[in-house]
Amino acid sequence: MYSSTFIFASKEFDAEFHRLDAAIAAAARDIPGYLGETSWENPQTGLVANVYYWDSLEALQALVKHPQHLEAKEHQSNWLDGYQVIISEVLRTYGDGGLGGLPPGPAPRDAQP
Which InterPro entries does the record cross-reference, listed alphabetically (predicted)? Predict the structure, then answer.
């Protein structure tokens, strides 16, 4: 499993931002290999993190190459005051199962948590 974390500081969002944001989220959910998503906001810094989970790098790349994602990236400076993307391979996830909606994660590897 892979995760793509998009961390950003926002400026003012307009109707075009909201249109593209909704279209990109819908496109991501339609890509075979999409496993789920979550978002976080840090009130102290104002930073927002959107985390998408994928079963393969190919699935993640399908979103990266999506026309509306490319359009948003081209105009990101209109809405964002800086961003960073982190692509990670998830080695394992575990928990008590009480947080529904998050992807279950891959089978554990040899390493211990």
Answer: Dimeric_a/b-barrel
Q: Is the pTM of this model over 0.90?
A: no
H or E stretch at 29: helix 15-30
Tokens 């003012």 correspond to: 12
Handedness of CA 14, 15, 16, 21 (dihedral sign): positive
Tokens for 59?
């699935």
Domains of the chain: 2-89 (3.30.70.100)
User: Angle between the 57-64 and 15-30 helix axes, to the nearest 10 degrees?
Assistant: 150
Which of 47, 48, 58, 60 is CA-nearest to residue 87?
60
